[in-house]
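[audit] Reproducing an earlier prediction to check determinism. Same input, same settings, fresh worker. If the tokens differ from the archived copy the diff job will pick it up downstream; this log only records the rerun itself.
[audit] input (105 residues):
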Amino acid sequence: MFSLNIGYWLLQSLAMLVTALLIPRLTITSVVGAVGIVIAIALVNAKLWDAALFFELPSSLTAHSALLLLANGLIFWILVKLLPGIQVDGLLPAIAAPVVFTVCS
């Protein structure tokens, strides 16, 4: 049976709003944008990407870890371009946003 945990989604949306406050060139123009990007990230993580992968990154910056950060930033940038209510200016904020969002949530 499908269970909807509204508290979880609200906290995730709040974490995305905090992320937008911490990253200067990431703006959320509507609540729908915050909720939409959280749902989109959840779907992408469930189907294509393992969110726990970030916790497996080595402590030193290697080519593999840099590629993972870049790929996750690119996925986030694509999602932002597809969804209304959220904007990111540049690739660097798009790379930083998923990391900050993970820490906030």
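[audit] rerun output stored. Observation attached for the diff report: The radius of gyration is 14 Å.
[audit] end
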